[in-house]
Design brief:
This protein is α/β, with parallel strands linked by helices.
C-alpha cells in the first residue's frame, strides 16, 4: 500500500512541476529572503508580462503540493519545496552539461571535445591504475568540471585537476608518475631574457630539464629519485644519466687502426704532408662520432708515442701541430659547457721538440681553465725533472690547471672525474660516478659510530641499485643503435651485451671534512682520532665494495671527488657551516687551509689513497718559488704519491 501511495504522490508532484512557470516561481521564492507579495512575484516571474490569466492557478497548484505557502506578508517556499528545487537544479545542470561542448587544447596544439573516457585511458596507460579506480577518478574529474563555468580546457589544467583528486584519494604514487615534464614558464622566461643564453643554449637547457624530470619522475623508483632530491647522493650530468656512459678510455693506436680501416683518404704512413693532415682531420671526425655516446671525456692513452711523435720528422711540422691544437680547441668549444671532453696521456719520459711545439701551441689556443686535460706519467724524479722542466718553465698558469702528473709505478691513467683506468692495455668504458653525502650521514647518525656505518652500508646498497638501473637504461638505449654497434665492436672487440655490464663503476663521496667535524668535533687533520675516523669510513666503504664485486662479479671502485659544479651547486648552502667562509663542499681530502707542512699533508694523503685506490689526486695548494721549486717537486715524486696537479698552485 505504501509503495502505491508513494508512486501516486510522486506522479502528482511531477505533474505539478511539469510546467516551466511553476519552477520559475520556486526559484524566485528560493532566492528571496522574505515573502513576496502576489504582484511582485507575478512581475518578477513574468518579467512585466501580465498577459497570463492563470498565475493564481499556478500558485494554488504549488500550494496544494506543499511546495509553497503564504501569509499576510506574501508567498514563500517550503522546506519540501527547497529540497525538490535542489534536485531540479541538479537535473538541469546535467542536461546543460550534456548539451554543452567543452573543448580541450591538447599538447599537440590541436582541439578536441572533452571525453572522460580519455581520462580513464590516460590513468590506466600512464598511471598504471586498475580500470575500476581509473573510472572512479575520471568520473570525479568530470563532476568537478561540471560545477565550473570553464568551457575551454588545456592539458596542463586537466592534469592539475587529475593530480589534485589523486592526492585527495591518497594516490601519491600514481600522481608521481603523471607529474608534467618541462620548465615552468617563469623559469623559462628568465632564461630567455639572459643575454649570454644563445638560442642553442636556451633549447638545450629546456630539453635538459625535461630529460632530468623524466629520469626522476618516471625512470627511477621514487626512493632512489628521492636520494638525489634530498641531497643524500650526487649524480653527474643528470640530463644524460639514463642515456649514455660517463667516459671512455681508448688507446691511441686503436683509434689509428680504426681510422686506417674506415677512412679511404688516410694512409698509415705519416711521411706525406697530405696524409698527415687527413689523419688529424679524421681523428676529430672519429672523436665527434664517439662523443655522441659519452657524457664526460674521451681519454686517449699513450697519445704522445702513438700519435704526436709521428710528426716529429716532418717538414713544416709547426703548421701541422697548429692544425692539431686548433682542432682540439674547436672540438672542446663545440660543447659549450666548460667541461673536459678530451684527455691526452703522455707516457714518454722525454718531452722533445714536437712535444714542445704542441704545448706551446696549446698555450696559445687555450684561454679558459677547462678544455683539454693533459696527463704526464713519470717513473722517477731525476729523469722526469731533467727532461720535462720545460713544463714548469714555459706553460702559463691557465694551462697549468689542465695538467696532472701521475706515477707510472703505482697508478694508471685517470680521467677527468678522477676515475682510474686500471688496465691501460685494454680499452675501457666508465659507466658512471655516484657520490654519497657523508655530511648528511653524520648528521643523521648524531655521533653514534654504529649508526653511522649502518647508514653508510644502506647508502652503498642503494648506490649499487642505482648502478643496476643505469646499466639497464643505457643498454636499452644503445641496444639498437647501429652506429654505436659498429664503433664499439671495432674499439672494444667485445660483444655489445657485455660492454656495459663489464664497465668500470665509480663510487665516491663528498662532505668528508664536514662529516668528520660533525662526528668528532674537530677537522680530520687536527687530531689522530679524527684522522682515524676518516680512515675508518673508507676502510668500511672499500670492504663493502670489494664484497659486492666478489658476489656480483662487478667492477665497482672507490675514487676521490673531483672539483665540478655538483659541489658548487650542492646542498651544502642549506646547511650552516662551522668553517668560516666555506660555502660549498670541497673535492680535497686534506682541507685547503690546513696548517700542516707539505710533508705532513703528503703523508696523511698517502694513508687515504691506499684505501681510495680507484682514483685519487693530491691537489693541495703549495707555493713554488725559484729557491724551493725543485725541492718541493722532489718531495712529491719521492713520496710515490699516485698523482698531483698544479691547478691551485702559485708560482
Amino acid at each position: 500500500m505504501n509503495s502505491d501511495k508513494n508512486k501516486d504522490l510522486l506522479g502528482k508532484q511531477l505533474k505539478t512541476l511539469g510546467q516551466k512557470i511553476r519552477i520559475d516561481i520556486l526559484k524566485k521564492l528560493n532566492h528571496s529572503q522574505n515573502p513576496l507579495s502576489f504582484s511582485k512575484l507575478q512581475r518578477d516571474v513574468l518579467e512585466g508580462d501580465f498577459s497570463s490569466p492563470n498565475f493564481s492557478f499556478h500558485l494554488n497548484e504549488l500550494k496544494k503540493c506543499d511546495l509553497i505557502n503564504s501569509t499576510e506578508y506574501g508567498y514563500y517556499i517550503t522546506k519540501l519545496g527547497k529540497r525538490i528545487l535542489e534536485n531540479i537544479v541538479s537535473i538541469e545542470q546535467i542536461l546543460l552539461d550534456k548539451s554543452k561542448t567543452r573543448v580541450i587544447r591538447t599538447s599537440k596544439y590541436s582541439k578536441e571535445s572533452f571525453d572522460s573516457s580519455k581520462i580513464e585511458d590516460y590513468l590506466i596507460t600512464e598511471g598504471r591504475m586498475e580500470r575500476f579506480l581509473a573510472r572512479k577518478i575520471a568520473h570525479e574529474v568530470e563532476e568537478r568540471l561540471a560545477r565550473t563555468n570553464i568551457e575551454y580546457l588545456t592539458t596542463p589544467l586537466m592534469r592539475e585537476y587529475i593530480n589534485a583528486i589523486l592526492l585527495e584519494n591518497g594516490l601519491e604514487e600514481v600522481r608521481h608518475k603523471l607529474t608534467r615534464l618541462g620548465t615552468p614558464p617563469y623559469e623559462a622566461s628568465k632564461l630567455f631574457n639572459l643575454k649570454e643564453f644563445t638560442p642553442d643554449k636556451f633549447i638545450k637547457k629546456l630539453g635538459s630539464d625535461v630529460s632530468e624530470q623524466f629520469l626522476l619522475l618516471n625512470l627511477l623508483p621514487k626512493n632512489l629519485a628521492d636520494l638525489y632530491l634530498s641531497g643524500e647522493i650526487a649524480l653527474l650530468h643528470l640530463n644524460y644519466w639514463s642515456l649514455r656512459p660517463l667516459s671512455i678510455y681508448i688507446k691511441t693506436d686503436t683509434v689509428l687502426e680504426y681510422i686506417f680501416n674506415n677512412y679511404s683518404n688516410s694512409s698509415n704512413q705519416f711521411t706525406e704532408r697530405k696524409d698527415s693532415i687527413n689523419i688529424i682531420l679524421n681523428l676529430f671526425d672519429f672523436l665527434y662520432q664517439i662523443k655522441q655516446y659519452i657524457t664526460e671525456d674521451i681519454v686517449l692513452g699513450d697519445f704522445d708515442n702513438n700519435f704526436l711523435f709521428k710528426y716529429n720528422g716532418l717538414e713544416n711540422n709547426t703548421h701541422l701541430i697548429n692544425l692539431l691544437t686548433s682542432q682540439m680547441h674547436r672540438y672542446n668549444e663545440n660543447f659549450q659547457d666548460n667541461q673536459h671532453h678530451l684527455t691526452l696521456e703522455f707516457k714518454s719520459q722525454n718531452v722533445n721538440h714536437i712535444a714542445k711545439l704542441f704545448l706551446d701551441s696549446l698555450n696559445n689556443n687555450y684561454t679558459n681553465n677547462k678544455g683539454l686535460l693533459l696527463e704526464f706519467g713519470f717513473s722517477d724524479f731525476a729523469n722526469f725533472y731533467s727532461q720535462n722542466n720545460l713544463i714548469f718553465e714555459h706553460l702559463s698558469n691557465s694551462l697549468r690547471q689542465n695538467i696532472i702528473i701521475y706515477n707510472n709505478s703505482c697508478s694508471n691513467l685517470l680521467n677527468s672525474t678522477l676515475i682510474k683506468i686500471d688496465n691501460p692495455m685494454s680499452n675501457e668504458i666508465i659507466l658512471d660516478k655516484i657520490l654519497i653525502n657523508l655530511h648528511m650521514i653524520s648528521m643523521e647518525a648524531n655521533q653514534n659510530d654504529g649508526l653511522f656505518f649502518e647508514l653508510l652500508q644502506d647508502k652503498l646498497n642503494l648506490v649499487f641499485e642505482l648502478f643496476n638501473y643505469k646499466k639497464d637504461l643505457v643498454t636499452k638505449k644503445l641496444k639498437f643503435n647501429k652506429k654505436w654497434d659498429t664503433l664499439s665492436s671495432e674499439i672494444f672487440k667485445s660483444h655489445r651485451e657485455n660492454l656495459i655490464q663489464e664497465s668500470i663503476k665509480g663510487i665516491s663521496f663528498f662532505g668528508l671534512n664536514e662529516a668528520v667535524i660533525n662526528h668528532c668535533g674537530i677537522e680530520l687533520d687536527r687530531t689522530e682520532s679524527s684522522l682515524k675516523f676518516a680512515l675508518e669510513i673508507f676502510t668500511g666503504m672499500r670492504r663493502i665494495i670489494e664484497e659486492q664485486n666478489e658476489e656480483e662479479n662487478e667492477r665497482y671502485i672507490l675514487n676521490q671527488p673531483h672539483d665540478d659544479n655538483y659541489l658548487k651547486d650542492s646542498w651544502h648552502s642549506e646547511i650552516k657551516s662551522r668553517e668560516e667562509g666555506l660555502n660549498r663542499y670541497s673535492s680535497r681530502i686534506i682541507r685547503e687551509n690546513s696548517l700542516l707542512s707539505l710533508t705532513k699533508k703528503v703523508n696523511y694523503f698517502r694513508k687515504f689513497e691506499n684505501l681510495i685506490d680507484g682514483g685519487s689526486i693530491f691537489n693541495q695548494k703549495f707555493h713554488f718559488d725559484e729557491n724551493n721549486e725543485k725541492k718541493q717537486l722532489k718531495l712529491l715524486f719521492d713520496s710515490k704519491i699516485n698523482a698531483f696537479t698544479f691547478g691551485n698552485n702559485k708560482k
